[in-house]
Design goal:
Blueprint (H helix, E strand, L loop, with lengths): L6 E9 L2 E9 L6 E5 L2 E6 L7 E7 L4 E9 L5 E7 L2 E2 H11 E8 L2 E8 L4 E4 L2 E2 L3 E5 L2 E8 L2 E9 L7 E7 L2 E3 L5
Antiparallel strand pairs: 1-2, 2-3, 3-4, 5-6, 6-7, 7-8, 9-10, 10-11, 11-12, 13-14, 14-15, 15-16, 16-17
């Protein structure tokens, strides 16, 4: 395995199916560009005469669009920015905080990352979209699913405040799991 000598940027991107690592090699003398997603080579270009530009690829199970922008900043210096679905990584992650809830939990010695996509009510666990069953209850809704042999549900209750909207709570084996901050 050749050593990554031209590694210029590394990003961590939290998506519903997990946290993905994006690495970018840019050989400014050879014109080489290589993009790795989770250690797997996605794009390799040798002898690019134009050193600026962009590389577009997909990340994760949902094939989320990602673009690395290569811009010159003075002499032989370059700036590398990552866009996810056409937004800067920062904007994308800020938006994700509003549209998803994430919980990290340990059950029987195994670690699980549970993600709720609020717009679709899809539930993901460790990279897999789960089968769920929705149910109306007195004060809101419950979305039931299993993690291993544990019964789980996400309870959605109105906060009573317009700005806060709906509060989602993960219950596993009748105990509440605190939300994670990624």
């Amino acid at each position: 395995l050749e050593k990554m000598t031209d590694l210029v940027a590394v990003w961590e991107v939290a998506l519903s199916d997990g946290v993905h690592k994006i690495e970018f090699e840019h050989g400014t003398t050879s014109g080489k560009r290589v993009v790795y997603v989770d250690g797997k080579e996605e794009i390799r270009k040798e002898w690019m005469f134009k050193l600026v530009g962009k590389e577009t690829f997909t990340v994760g199970a949902a094939k989320t669009k990602a673009t690395i922008n290569i811009d010159a900043v003075g002499g032989f210096a370059y700036e590398y920015t990552l866009e996810i679905n056409g937004k800067s990584l920062k904007k994308y992650m800020e938006n994700r905080l509003k549209t998803t809830n994430t919980w990290i939990l340990s059950l029987g010695g195994m670690d699980y990352r549970v993600v709720l996509e609020k717009d679709t009510m899809d539930v993901w666990c460790n990279g897999q979209k789960l089968e769920t069953a929705g149910e109306f209850v007195e004060d809101g809704t419950e979305t039931h699913f299993s993690v291993g042999d544990h019964s789980c549900y996400i309870k959605a209750v109105s906060s009573g405040k317009r700005k806060e909207g709906i509060i989602h709570t993960l219950i596993v084996d009748d105990r509440e799991i605190p939300e994670a901050v990624e």
